[in-house]
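Checked the freezer inventory, then went back to the computational side. Two predictions to log before the end of the day. The first one is the construct we discussed on Monday; recording sequence and tokens without edits.
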Amino acid sequence: MDFAFVLLIAFAVFLVVFVRTELGLYLVIFSMLLSPEIGAGSGGLAEGRQVVIRTEDLVLLVVAFSWLAKTAVNKELGLALKTPLNRPILWYVAVTTIATLVGYATGTVQGLGGFFYVLKYTEYFVVYYMVANNLSNRSQAWRFVGAAFLTAAIVSVIGAAQIPSGQRVSAPFEGTEGEPNTLGGYLVFMMALAGGIALETQRLRVRLTCLALLALMVVPLAYTLSRASFLSVPFVLAALGVFSSRRRVVVGALLLLLVSAPLIGVALLPKAVVNRILYTFEPEAGQATVRFGKVALDPSTSARFISAQQALVAWTRQPVLGYGVTGARFMDVQYARTLVETGIVGLAVFLWLAWSALKSSLASFRALRDPEERGLALGFLAGTVGLLVHAVGANTFIIVRIMEPFWFFAAVVVSLPALAAAQESATPARQFRRIA
């Protein structure tokens, strides 16, 4: 792509966003899952991976710079709002950065890998603060949510179109190999949001729309063949059933059917899904195998247990701040990776951040009165539970295409009580005290 043309487009986006930030946020929402790669480096950064640049990265960068410029011109806008997640976010970024700098100093982190990974982690929180800072009313919040759900519908249609190929379904523009686990985690989260609204709403049209979206998303989810995603579904249903103020019996019945009727499940689920689940308990000769009594696991699942065990051993040698981001060998288990890369301090801060997200969404759910808004908060709570389970078999909380939607919705859910209170009292919408 011609550099001058890209620069012109970027400048145009900058001007548009400077005048009206909301338009830039729509661009960010649609680009989260629908952004193609526009370039890739020829050399690996870390963990055998290459530098990959997506349209999304440039869009977010331009929108963020425009937002910063706008706040610099208009001092009343402020840089960030005080939200319940500010402190854990700040600590998480600080600990991750410090651990990686120590890794560079001691030689455990080499090359640009650690720098780019930390930059990606920070990018998620830029999304959070941009959304939280620019939400002015509930109608605007629901327009953003609608755009995110429309994106999920488009992604689901594209995913469903991949099924006849016989390959595992992955998100659009994921390269030749794809990342089915990524799409699985994203769909579980989005399904939790739609399910929460469907449970709480009192409007038939909204419920039917959410149920239709759920039906659309469940098809590509099944064909991702992502066992971490399958494992998280019962926990999402359990969270919806426990916290929902309506139809707990229905959700409980669905959960019971899912976990206690395997024969019915085998009859209803696609053969590829059943085979994928059963493969978990099929060891292969000559491959590393983890056994629990007489139960032996397949090479992929065994590798996760082995990498977690190796992480614990490595962690004991550098227990406080770990080896820094990318300072240890690759492992596809979020908790083990966080422990070995950022030590016990980093894991504690990560768990604090996750707990704060759960606590804040539950507080919003209890404070809100509008059924759809309560449903969104409930869905976010259940979706967070699902992602925490998903993280047992994936690096869920550092995956761009899961975390950017997650932090987008986190900003909406955390902001809704203040927006609702402002509308009801006819006072300015921003109820959070601004901080520099």
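The second is the one RB wanted added to the comparison set:
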Amino acid sequence: MTAPAFDTLALDVPGPIARLTLNRPERLNAMGATMLRELAEAARWFDGNPEVRVVIVSGAGRAFSAGADLRDSPVGEASPRSGNSWAVRREVGQLGLRMADAVEGMRAVTVAQIHGYAVGGGVVLAAACDLRVAAEDAVFSIPEIELGIPLAWGGIPRLVREIGPALTRELVMTCRRFSPAEAKAAGFLNRVVPAGLLREEAESLAAQVAGMPSVPITITKEHVNAVTRAMGQGSTSFADGDALLSAAFDPESLESARKYLERTVERKRR
């Protein structure tokens, strides 16, 4: 089976267990507009290949994903100064949500293999996967509010579903880092293993799932997703891209983002 070529992703499809790798290691796999579009496209491609049973989602280099790429952010395309029409700018603002929905809705079971940093949108991508395995030295954080924007991409409903409303509020509002041990205790992770065993553990879990009868596996995935949607009845990610864009160009938000970036640069210099 010949997988399509992407600019920001690498697909390896040797059989029923495939691997989708975020492939921008020089940017810690930060997700810009191109990667968001390609992730949604890759999800659709897997849906057209029913022989793929499980997809392991991982990151090349030192991180799973550093979240939204501030240099190639969809927000730039959605700026009123971009010259794009309102309709185009609004659709660009929804790219992250479209990506997360496409990954979550894949027919194949998805296993997130998390190492290094999982930041902001990287946490949302992991939350969109069915199963999650992390290295014990991985680092999680959700810094969006410190950047002057709300957590978008359907992140709030997904986190409330996985770890509950109280911890979601704390982690999103404080922007503090949290460990794999805390994430597992909260129910976000299935397994935490030493870094050297991460790939082996993710592949072992994928093999267990791929070895089961395909029909009940598919039904179970869809059933669990249907139940979680029903549990969250009344909550929605509708127009969270609109909320993101509204906040992104607020003067206070812009100033907060500037300070955050200055601190980030200063930390790198030390």
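For RB: Strands lie at 9-12, 17-22, 54-59, 109-114, 117-119, 131-135, 139-141, 191-193. The two ends are 47 Å apart (CA to CA). Let me know if you want it refolded.
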